[in-house]
Amino acid sequence: MTNLGPLGWVTDRERGYRYQEAHPVTARPWPAIPQVLLDLWAELADPQRPPDACLVNLYRDGARMGLHQDRDEVDHTAPVLSVSLGDTAIFRIGPAEGGPTSTVRLASGDVCALAGEARLARHGIDRVLTGSSRLIPGGGRINLTLRRSR
Ligand SMILES: O=C(O)CCC(=O)C(=O)O
Ligand SMILES: [Mn+2]
């Protein structure tokens, strides 16, 4: 939906998915990543190498995310850290090389780290449990995904 930090994850029909410094419509830089998220990254991911991108996604109206790997970042040793807010999600995760997957609930305030041997795990959002939280005005779930893209 939108991004925070030096680089934003965007897509369009012409050029596909990529990280870029400016908002594709306004051409303005993305807002800074809030300090509380930088602190969380330093504590749980890597204090030496800060994130340069934070994707902000809003899940509403039955939105889901198909099984995928996060592999568009240059250095796959840097973790991917995500914060769930609002409605609980059914998160599916399985090994990078394929095979059985399992699910775990991500509730509001939960933090998920894809790190180490799980860095390239396949993962996605099966569904969001509508009405399970009252945090987000209008309902739904917000996911903040911090990455080191370059
Ligand atoms: O919403 C989530 O918890 C997962 C988000 C995700 O996998 C992604 O943005 O690549
Ligand atoms: Mn992902």
Output the keywords.
mainly beta, 1 helix, 150 residues, 4-stranded antiparallel β-sheet, 5-stranded antiparallel β-sheet, Jelly Rolls
Structure description:
- This protein is mainly beta.
- It has a single domain, classed as Jelly Rolls.
- 7% of the residues lie in helices and 37% in strands.
- It contains one helix and eleven strands.
- The strands form three sheets. It has a five-stranded antiparallel sheet, covered by helices on one side. A four-stranded antiparallel sheet has the order 5-10-7-8, with no helix packed on it. It has a two-stranded antiparallel sheet with strand order 2-3.
- A hairpin with a 7-residue loop joins strand 2 (8-10) and strand 3.
- The two termini are 21 Å apart.
- The relative contact order is 0.25.
- The mean pLDDT is 97.
- The site of 2-oxoglutaric acid has 13 residues, from strand 4, strand 6, strand 7, strand 10 and strand 11.
- 2-oxoglutaric acid (AKG) binds next to strand 4, strand 6, strand 7, strand 10 and strand 11.
